[in-house]
Amino acid sequence: MSTRTAADLVTTFPFPFPQDTYRYSTNVEPAGRPVETPAGQWGSSMLAVDSEYHHELNERAEILQRDPSRLQVLDHMRPAAWDAMLTLMQELALAYPQDFSLTRNADGTFTWINHLLGWHQQFTWGDESSLPTEPMAYIGAQVQEDIALLDQRGSELFVDAGVITFAADWSFGFDVGMSFMEIHGPVPRVHDLGVIARAQTFITRLQVGAPYRRTNWSLTIGRRLDVATEVYDRWGPDRGWIQTVDDTTFGDAVHLRVEVQHLVRLPQTGAVMFLIRTCMLPLSELARIEPWRARTHAVLQELPEDMADYKGFLSYRDRAVAWLDRQAPAD
Ligand code: HEM
């Protein structure tokens, strides 16, 4: 087996399976509590900066240049974008004080410093001319997380702004402006189970200062972050290629792809911020941690066909199960 994954990506990997079986649920828990894993720990802060920081932000910049539809702020969400930017700056400064700082000056302006990028900016809340780009673009260039902003109208939520460059087979450009229920239309099972209606009710009751989080997961081929529906022609063929490779390549190429998602009520506007952080670990690395290997094997083997199909790995699920089985330690 080869090792190409930086150590911190293993020790902070948010392994998503609490049990040997996996079903959809409204799996939310309060944010900020660190989770111990057999490899290390994750989850002590809402935003995580790791060894992929520069690489992922460069990738986001390239994607946005190629396709500006991945960043959209509907007009009524402009104040929410400021709210999101300031909230994220505060979070970064709190979690990583050596790398980021935010100061409120006596004249009411703010000074923001990002040491990792060498950025130093004085700005006035609400004044776009005081930033080099609009607030969503400015903060999107400094956090590894994708960001969606939801407007609450009565008991319904609408995804009306965001910068989403790492969508796992969905299209932000297509979904922007849609309701929470419409967006989840393609997901199997969840509507009959009431998962999405319950999730919406839960989100509409979110309080300022009490963020929640959940995880979601899939399998993906390679470390490609941009697997949006509109660029299917770039990554879809990998699903055919993976059938043809040898076992070593298979273990290095197939990744467990986990999203750590945070739900945050923004303090100034009351909009809801949804953060999606994508973490990927190749099966070859995951298999070195025996409890992870055994659990992933069990979950994949048992997962109902419609869920594996929706998640896009039905065609290589059996091979992943067999591959993980062969890595089991000898008795
Ligand atoms: C997909 C649940 C919040 C956007 C999904 C899936 C589930 C789910 C079960 C299927 C995932 C898979 O099998 O890989 C939930 C729950 C939430 C929540 C329980 C909150 C407690 C949100 C929010 C957004 C969102 C706030 C806003 C952008 C999406 C999208 C998809 C998705 C775009 C992909 C749909 C597609 O195939 O086009 N969600 N979700 N979700 N969710 Fe959520």
Automatic annotation (TrEMBL):
Superkingdom, taxonomy of origin: Bacteria
Pfam families, per database record: HODM_asu-like
Matches recorded under InterPro entries: HODM_asu-like
Name of the protein: DUF3445 domain-containing protein
Species in which this protein is naturally found: Nesterenkonia flava
